[in-house]
Amino acid sequence: MNSTVKEIIEWIYCIIIAIVLALLIRYFIGTPTVVQQTSMWPTLKQNERLVLNRLARTFHQVPNRGDIITFEAPSNAKTGANSVKAEYDNEPQGWLKKFIYYVLEIGKTSYIKRVIALPGEHVQIQDGKIYINEEELQEEYLQKNVETDAKSMYLTDFVVPEGYIFAIGDNRMESSDCRYFGCIPIERIESKVWIRFWPLNLFGTI
What we know:
This protein is α+β, with helices and mostly antiparallel strands. The protein is 21% helix and 27% strand. A hairpin with a 5-residue loop joins strand 11 (189-198) and strand 12 (204-205). It is elongated and about 80 Å long.
């Protein structure tokens, strides 16, 4: 083997290793993203750049109330809820399709929302407010005079199932969230919003 061929092979090895490491970091540790919608306004605005922390998914941690998370969009996101639980019936078949969908995230839609209620908690949405276990939820992050309306008759007075969370966007009037399609399985949570790095004047943890 001459030196040129050997050098080419070494470069190919290096590129393959770099790609594998990048994918592992992106899937298990963290990844950058861009805010594309207005559902978390004014907390997050369109075109802001964020770093997502994926360690919680890696270690199967339950999020805390108030955490801003991303999760895989349910299959009933466009049709609405017919129960308290969101539906996921679009599971890709075969290892290659799963790799493309879950690791490369091609063809997958994700939502960014705030965790409101945890497994086993009693949620009531009434008179424009949210009550958790019969106590009004204090939401200082909302704009003044914002009211919360239920989007589904199944999700006005319910208990969050075990293994699920209830998440809503801060921009209540413009957010398609768990009020519409149901509670999200914890296993479908992809990441927690960690750092905003653009615009620079807002740089910091969230």
